[in-house]
Amino acid sequence: MPLVWIRRLAAVSLALVLFAPALKAMGRDQSDESALSNAEVEKIREARLVPADCIELFVKFLDLRIEEVNNLYAKPRRPGREEDTRDLIQQFTSIADELGDNLDDYGPRHADLRKILPKLLEGTERWSSALKSVPENSVYSVDRKLALESIRDLRESTAQMVTDQDAWFKAHPPDKKKRQQEPGPVDILR
C-alpha cells in the first residue's frame, strides 16, 4: 500500500510541475498583459459608445508613449534606458495594433470619423519620425521595426478609411434633423 501512495504522490507532483506554467498563465489578470494601464482601459471603456472619442483616446495614449521615449533621450543617460525604451516601444506597438483593430470594427459600421481621422494621420507621421529619431540599439531594434510597421499599417488603413468615409457620407448624407432628435450617449451612474 505505501508503494501505491508514493507512486500517486509522484504522479501528482510531476503533473503539477508540468502544468504549473499553463495554470499560472490562465490565472493572469488582464492588467499583466495589457499595454494600457487600468485607468486607460477604463477611459477606453467609457468612450466606447462614441467611436471618435475612443480613437482620440488611443491617439492620446500613443502620444504619451512617444513622449516618454523622447524624455528618456532628452535627459542624461541612465542605466536601463534601452530596456525602458524597448518596453515603451512594445507598449506603443500593442496600443497601435489595438487602435487598428478598432478602426477595422468601425469601418463597416460607417461611424462618422471624418473629423478625427485627419488627426490620426498627422499622428502617424509624428510617431514615425519620433521613433526614427531614437538612436539605433540592438536591445530594441526589432521592436522599433515592428512599431514602424504597425504605424505604416495604421497610416494605410486610416488613409483608406478617409476615402471610404468621404464616399459613404457623400452618398448617404446624415440627416441633420434626425441627428438633433437622436439622444446622445447614455451616462450610466455607478
Overview of this protein structure:
The protein is an all-alpha fold and 190 residues long. The protein has one domain. The protein is built from 8 helices and no strands.
List its traits.
0% strand, 190 residues, mainly alpha, 77% helix
Brief account:
It contains eight helices and no strands. It has 190 residues and is an all-alpha fold.
How many strands appear in the DSSP assignment? 0
Structural class designation: mainly alpha
Name the average pLDDT: 83
Q: Could you estimate the helical fraction of the residues in percent?
A: over 70%
Spatial gap, N to C terminus: 59 Å
Q: What gyration radius follows from the Cα positions, in whole Å? A: 23 Å
Report low-confidence residues grouped into runs of 5 or more: 20-32
The biggest beta sheet is recorded as: none
Total count of helical runs of at least 4 residues:
8
* Portion in strands: under 5%
Order of helices and strands: HHHHHHHH
The coarse silhouette is extended
Query: What's the number of domains?
Result: 1
